[in-house]
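Page 47, continued from p. 46.
Same chain as before, 505 aa.
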Amino acid sequence: MKGLPNSVDWLRLTWNHRQIKSVGPYKEHALYWQKYLDWALCFFPRTYIQLARGHDKTERASWWALLWGLTMDHGQGFACGVDRDNARLFRDAAKWQVSAHPELFKDYKIYNYDIVNKRNGTIVRVLASDEESNYGLTPDLLLVNDFHAWRNKDFWNALWTAMGKRRHSRMWIESNALAMGTPQIQWIRPIRSFAKKKFSEKPIFIPGNPDSHGWRPDEGAPEWFHYAPQAFLASWQNHMLSEWKETMLPAAYRRLIENQDTSEGDQYLTPEQVEAVEIDYKHPVRKRSRVVIGVDIGYTQDSSVVSVVSLDNSDPKGKKAQLILHHMDVWTGSRENPVAIKEVVAKANMYRRKYKGRILCDPYELRWILQENPYWEEFTFTSNNLKMITTQIYQTITKKRLKIPKECAPALQAKREGRPTMWDLKRELTEAVLKEMSYGLRIDHRSGGFTDRIMSLGIAIVTLLEDDMPAFRPLEKPQKARGEAPTMGKIIKDIIGKRSKRILI
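Result:
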């Protein structure tokens, strides 16, 4: 096998050296799972390691790649990432390892995209999966970073078919859990399944004691190593778990923190979470509250919705700024009887005059709305805005920062020729699902469902929180800023001193 292992006990060197230095993936720790992964990278030619975020995957791979380069003559290694910036993370980690361990890596020189061992001519080159063609590669070592996020299947095919060009070449794949249902997962998932199958086909001896690492896979052992614990193992970050769980969407938390695959269709909110923010009385709009009117336009199949939301920070205890949904009006339509858009516009304008609020709307193809109403503002459903709507509605409800009326905006609705059923805001929120897109998680509806009320509410919430984020945080007593600019009076006083009482300007 080319590169690692040889006469040097690389495992003992790794465990002792990095633990003493308190640098690298171990920091001040030397947990079993960390030693287990080192054992696999040292002896297995193919590894597929799936871990949660924050488990120092890049630092571990850069360490072993540098050790591998010490045992090769004129070897060719390639570190591949999702894009050029992602790939540079490996370069930066290797640069830090070289500076932290000069006694080991003094022969290495770090360039922009090349890591070169000047003594033996071995090179590790940084690549990105967005590059057009890499069919001429002949790798001795291939590192694949953040494989779950790769979208260029042709790039993977070029790398995978190049693995047979050099005998005994190595490949280390690192990934997070997968979001099932997204297009790129359809070709990534079989590769993970293949690695898992190959690892479990033949029984192998796994050292029970991390220090007893004398056994090495022989010709009868599996070529692949697979590791995907459904848990958060980085104990040095346990203090962040509660904050992450409180602020992240459930599907994102399970996938990125608990290392569990998620599937398209995970429930957005539970009935208990929505019921906790419902009120059974009409809440008045306070004078000092800021009001935004969110309008979601639907014409035939979808509905048109107008929502009036205020940001009220007049809590007598001065702790929380509350978002309150005061009104939500719904207009349903069909192909035979479409929504009367002028009624929707008139209703929104009435709320604007009454509450002195801003109106935001995504007109889609009805651009005449903005032309006839110049004080209306455009809100487009971009990928970033959809992510913000998904996150902000979830956080305001789970943190009980939003108040909504009970049985809000009821109306009979149906998709196409389906039988109409009663829908309201609570039903939309509890039947909505999370959908994994290329830009992240977004809220969506199941087949035959609706999210028109959610989008209208989201437009208002996102606008209010973007315009006045400090008002949404706990109110604090104003503090005098340090080093504030001196006033003109102070400047004059410093100039004339205490000897003169008057000055002529």
